[in-house]
Specification:
Layout (H helix, E strand, L loop, with lengths): L1 H22 L14 E2 L1 E3 L2 E16 L2 E5 L4 E6 L8 E2 L6 E3 L2 H30 L4 H26 L2 E2 L5 E6 L6 E2 L4 E7 L2 E8 L1 H4 L20 E8 L2 E16 L6 E8 L16 E18 L8 E5 L5 E5 L1 E5 L3 E6 L6 E3 L13 E2 H18 L1
Parallel strand pairs: 1-22
Antiparallel strand pairs: 2-21, 3-12, 3-16, 4-11, 5-7, 5-10, 6-9, 7-8, 9-11, 12-15, 13-14, 13-16, 14-15, 16-20, 17-18, 17-21, 19-20
Length: 383
């Protein structure tokens, strides 16, 4: 009996264990996790882009003159405006050289002209009466012409004792002062015109593709032509100030060292002598935004999604990654502009994706949200 119990106890225990295992409820089933990366995508669209080209340069005077004396003498008077920074009007006398000698020369020349005129008239009268030869009349006419030329020269020298300029402007530097004796060619100062100022803006070859620069055949007799509008900006007294300008010409050559082409922008009335607004002093370093040309059928993408220099991650209809090179024609701080290699309606990845591989499967957030809404609708219908 004891041996039988020893044999039956393990059998009964095994049977009870098997029975309990069969009676245990099945564990709840868990949904299979989709381990494909989740990404955000953007559907590409075409647009017409109005590009702006950025450049920079220094404001320079359009006309600058090194003022020199044309006659010799002592400086007897100087205008109070003839100081660095002084502004003057067109034809205003800035300096006067002692005119005493030149006034005397004019009087002497006038007297000589009167004398030669009398001699000429007498020779002409005698010639008409047959008392003088033709050669004598010609000699008298030549003497009169010489005297008249001397009078013109004397009056011109007297006028040159007044130092003035044919434009309104500003004094950059003063090199002569009251009481100084000057000779012809002595430097008196440096002046520049204030009616216009110019900025030389360097443009690279890629910039030129988006700027319609005037060509030589379009220039007027003054050497100007209508070009793109320009917006200049600089910081003055801690504030950003802007001015309107316009491209008036191109210098027409490529710089051999920097390989850039210079376009010239002109600013009217930079010192605001005849208009309102903040002045733009000569020598100011400015940033320029040049109005560029329009480009049609361009695709704009965020600059941050471009891999390397010109690669984008595309997602096809099966959710697979395609790495493709595209033609980027221009980039700015926010966007890159694609002209080839992509088409409207295609999708690109715009979120971070580590180590993307061609052909890998991804889930797009838009598709996931759509699937979740459909599943929610089905559950509501079943309920």
């Amino acid at each position: 009996m004891r041996k039988l119990l020893i044999f039956l106890v393990p059998i009964v225990a095994i049977g009870i264990a098997l029975l309990m295992q069969q009676m245990r409820p099945e564990p709840p089933k868990k949904d299979t996790l989709d381990l494909d990366p989740l990404v955000d995508v953007q559907v590409l669209e075409t647009m017409t882009a109005n590009f702006t080209v950025n450049s920079q340069g220094t404001v320079l005077p359009r006309t600058e003159t090194v003022l020199s004396a044309e006659v010799s003498g002592t400086v007897t008077s100087i205008s109070p405006k003839f100081i660095p920074g002084g502004v003057f009007d067109r034809g205003e006398v800035l300096m006067r050289i002692d005119p005493t000698n030149y006034e005397g020369a004019v009087k002497q020349a006038e007297a000589l002209v009167k004398q030669r005129q009398i001699e000429h008239d007498g020779a002409e009268k005698l010639r008409s009466q047959g008392y003088r030869a033709e050669a004598e009349l010609a000699s008298a006419a030549a003497a009169l012409a010489t005297a008249e030329a001397e009078l013109v020269r004397a009056r011109r020298n007297l006028a040159r004792t007044y130092i003035r300029l044919p434009y309104e402007g500003m004094v950059r530097s003063k090199d002569a002062d009251l009481g100084q004796f000057v000779n012809p060619g002595t430097r008196l100062g440096v002046m520049f015109a204030t009616d216009h100022a110019e900025v030389r803006l360097p443009l690279t070859d890629s910039d030129l593709a988006f700027v319609d620069l005037p060509n030589a055949s379009e220039m007027t007799a003054a050497g100007n032509s209508d070009g793109p509008a320009v917006r200049l900006s600089a910081t003055q007294k801690g504030k950003l100030v802007e001015w309107d300008a316009q491209i008036v010409r191109s210098e027409g050559v490529v710089d051999e060292k920097s390989r850039v082409t210079y376009a010239v922008a002109r600013i009217a009335d930079p010192y605001r002598r005849h208009s309102e607004g903040a002045p733009l002093p000569v020598g100011t370093f400015v940033t320029a935004r040049i109005e560029g040309a329009e480009a049609e059928s361009i695709i704009r993408v965020p600059r941050g999604v471009v891999r390397g220099s010109n690669e984008l991650l595309f997602v096809d209809e099966n959710g697979k990654i395609e790495i493709r090179s595209v033609g980027i024609v221009r980039s700015d701080a926010e966007y890159s502009y694609v002209a080839s290699g992509a088409q409207a309606g295609e999708r690109i990845v715009v979120s971070a994706l580590e180590a993307p591989i061609r052909g890998m499967t991804v889930r797009t957030r838009a598709d996931t949200d759509t699937a979740a809404r459909i599943a929610s609708t089905d559950n509501e219908d079943d309920g």
